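Long-time lurker. I teach an intro course on protein structure, and each term I like to show students one example going from raw sequence to a predicted 3D structure in token notation. This year I'd like something fresh instead of my usual example. Would anyone be willing to generate the tokens for the chain below so I can use it in lecture? Attribution to the forum is fine with me.
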Amino acid sequence: MENQQFENQEWQTPQQHYGNTDPREQQGPQGQQGYYPQSMYVDPREKIQPAPRRRRPWLWVVAAIVIIALLAGGIQSGLRNVVNTSSETHTYSVSTLPTLVLNDNTGTVTIHTGGTGSQVTIQATKHFQSFGSAPAVQYSQSGDTINATVKNQNDSFLSFGSDNVDFNVTIPANANLDVHTDTGTINVTGVSGTMALTTDTGSITANEDTLSGPSTLKSDTGSVTFAGSIGTSGSYQFLTDTGSVNATLAANASFHVDASTDTGSINSDFTEVNVQKQDFTGGTAHGDVGSNPNATVTLKTNTGSINLHKG
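-- Reply from a regular --
Happy to contribute to a lecture. Here you go:
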């Protein structure tokens, strides 16, 4: 009996020898259901599949951002030179002493005398990208005060910072000016009156003008140049943070001068001005020019030279 059982086991196939792994079909003693541990046998003919790699979706997000940035840069480069230009002109009737208040974001402001002497003419030339809208300028008049203010310029990434408005103003010979630009140059020729000319980035040039006090010509970054006359009283300031200051005044003018530079030289054609150099860089200068001076001239730069000339 025992030999018969042994022989039967010998002729079992491998699948029969190791048995069915389903615990529900395992037969225990006397036909009872039971559980037997699963065999560790692995058929060598079966290929072990590698575990799937985890996807990284953030890589696609980064790639998309890079592609969009490159496309935007290409569009900006292609449209940089595609600029539209439009212009508008406004004319206002004024008395003998008008006041012009002008505020520009980016652009050149040129003011000169001419016309009938009783009119202010403002020509605004707008430059803007083809896919943008022209900057808007708001005009108004209150008595003899004329206002012109750039209200908006394109902030779209397609504009690439190229939008600007240039002003060309014709004004009577006697006028007061209050002009400011964020980025751009200011040029005034042949005007007599009080002036407040300021720019954040750009140069200021005033030629053949007569200033009455108080007047200030100031640039944060840029040179300031004045050639003309000043009144017998009042304060006159020529200031810049970075750049040179050049003032040419009449030889017979009377004024007190205070000048200073942190880094740069000071030169004066007026012998009454005492220039003192600092130990290493910069200098100061003070003096009374002419007889009984009641006007004060202030020349100041942080980085740059100061030149005071006789006209």
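Some talking points for your students: The chain has a mean pLDDT of 82. The chain has two domains: 82-174, 185-311.
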